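Now for our specimen.

. . .
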Amino acid sequence: MLPLMSRSQRSDPAPSRWAYRMTRFMLSPFLRRTVYFGIPTAVVVGAVALYASDVERREHIAGIYQDAYRSIIERPEFMVKVVAIHGASPALDLEIRDVLPVDLPMSQFDLDLQEIHSVLTELDPIAKARIQITQSGTIQIDVEERQPAFLWRNRDTLEVLDDSGAFVRFAVNRMDYPNLPLIAGEGADTQVPQAKSILAAARPIADRVRGLVYVGERRWNVLLENDQSILLPERNPVQAIERMLVLDQTQDLLARKVSVVDMRLSQRPTIRIAPDQIDQVIDTSLTSTENDPL
């Protein structure tokens, strides 16, 4: 039979004062995260930083990364091998292929579609462009080409413009685009829509119109065959040309020997006789006066 232990000899199950304080201290969430996560993370980061402090090691790591990256992006399913262009004329097709910033074959991940789009829209003949990469590994480029609408004689050059007045390309001579209406004068390219309206109003005499001249960057003159000119006002030039056509229909105005029909004053149109016809007009007038003394 074991002897009974005295109360003083029994072991105390309660922790010591320091153990109790340490236990309470470790109950702090911040300290617990620091011990379990912060310190190991700091050790790992420090080891990595120490390893990467060497230049050769960094270059080696970068080389491994680049090799792995290239091996993924240059897989056959990611390679682009063909450029398909739709909506462009043969000349524009060649121009697009010359300026494209791509060297095929290349990975889709190396293509900068925004840069390609910027390069294409900087070409004067292109109004709009849309670029996409198809699943077959083709760069498909759909372009909307500006359609020539006018020839603009700008000092010593001959420029092709579209309906909005945007530059399309240079022309060598007038016969390159014989069916396009001709305009001239400083600033005429900014008034192409108005010139188009004037030509539409002058359609009854379209076969006699040689071109339009923008005068003083404010109004138009219509040049006709036989060195005849129609001077239009700054405001409402279309209405002026329509009134002139009424005069021509009622009085056969343009069939007469006139060099200028001045419509700048809407209430008082005036005409100018051709210089080589003045004497004939005077003789005709004198003859009429002799035959009719009243």
